[in-house]
Amino acid sequence: MPTIKQNSSSQFQFIALMAALMSVAALAIDALLPALDIIGLAIGTENSSDNQLLVIMIFLGLGVGPLLFGPLSDSLGRKPIVYMGFVLFIVASFICINATSLEMMILGRVLQGIGLSAPRTISIAIIRDMYSGDYMARIMSFVTVVFILIPVIAPLLGKFVLDHYNWQGIFYIQVLISILVSFWFWRQQPETLAIADRVKPSFPIFKNGFKEVLKQKKTMGYTLITGFVSGAFFVYLSSSQQIFEIQYNLKEEFPFIFAGLAISIGAAIFLNGSLVLKYGTEKLITFSLLGFFGISILYSILFFGGTNPPVSIVILFFAMLFFMLGFLFGNLRALAMEPVGHIAGMAAAITGFISTIMAVPISIYIGSFVVDSAFPLFVGFAICSFISLLILLFLKRSK
């Protein structure tokens, strides 16, 4: 791992840049939320639940893409792969702009996800090149704090574009931002993978890397937990528009509700940056999973009949759940990557692929039940968090 000294100013710029690389993916997902029903009408979707696929399928691309870009980054270096990804994303964005059917839009969204998986995955590999252990978790926390600002403003941006232009304008904004982030990355970030540490891409190397990841019990355990937690969160992302705009008839208020709930996650992530050094990553993950499970069970018991409670109650429960989530995402990834720092690019790709391939079908299945009530969403939260706790217990006992 290279020794790269950073003063406070350069570290702040580094955190902001890594967050920007991740944030284009969040923008591509969240800015589209207010426009899902409008796009659905434009491309002829038959059921409102089909519109959830416009969100979920980009995650499929985000999961598959790292299998290509991760190993390539271990061979060619980190920076060229980021540029490749942004080029693919821009091409895919124009496919979405010109889509006339659900199938074409899904193709564009999957390709968008594959393209954005490059900056998303490589940013994690760059952080792992420079940090490890709780300090890596701390940097990941601060990166995610900046990253979380995108879900706060993205739906508002999407609504603004819809009010003043059309849904295609959302994709044009994404293209412009990706170009600006690429330029910033080119100017600011040095290569973190030394030439001497690079390996030629080959199937045996990829196969050996996959075996190395699979045999690391700690890496696989936290990756599986990430898959279940992500699956639960993907359901919320894909169905939140349906819940608040259709079930509660809050079309105008939806972007502000979404922003407020994103702040709940951001607050926890901000606290995590300090608490992780005081209490350790594993304790915070245990506490958060227990809280997530308990809150989900409480809602499921209180509103077992399936009728939606007042919107303020739903928002309160979502806010509590997402506060717990804020202590999970960065910490889970940091612990999963800890034993595989020697193959950081490939490991980030493989763990990201496994967790996403788990999360996508989980979210599609649970989301299919979210039609007239938010109740199935909380039942899904409870099941996913319970299984995650069982995996965590297994990891603790097998030490």
Beta-strand portion reads under 5%
Give the biggest sheet. Answer: none
Poorly predicted parts:
1-5
**What percent of residues adopt helix (DSSP H or I)?**
over 70%
What is the strand tally? 0
Distance between the termini: 26 Å
Task: Write up this protein.
With 399 residues, the chain is mainly α. 80% of the residues lie in helices and 0% in strands. It contains 17 helices and no strands. α1 (8-30) packs antiparallel against α6. The longest helix has 31 residues, at 217-247. The protein is globular. The model is unreliable at 1-5 (pLDDT under 50).
Which labels suit this protein?
80% helix; mainly alpha; 399 residues
Question: Which helices and strands, and how do they pair?
Answer:
Elements: H1 8-30, H2 36-43, H3 53-64, H4 66-76, H5 78-97, H6 102-130, H7 133-147, H8 149-164, H9 167-188, H10 203-215, H11 217-247, H12 254-279, H13 281-302, H14 311-325, H15 329-337, H16 344-367, H17 375-397
Helix pairs in contact: 1-6, 1-7, 1-8, 1-9, 3-6, 3-11, 3-16, 4-5, 4-6, 4-16, 5-6, 5-9, 6-16, 7-12, 7-15, 8-12, 10-16, 11-15, 11-16, 11-17, 12-13, 12-14, 13-14, 13-15, 13-17
Sum this structure up briefly:
This protein has 399 residues and is an all-alpha fold. It has helices spanning 8-30, 36-43, 53-64, 66-76, 78-97, 102-130, 133-147, 149-164, 167-188, 203-215, 217-247, 254-279, 281-302, 311-325, 329-337, 344-367, 375-397. The model is unreliable at 1-5 (pLDDT under 50).
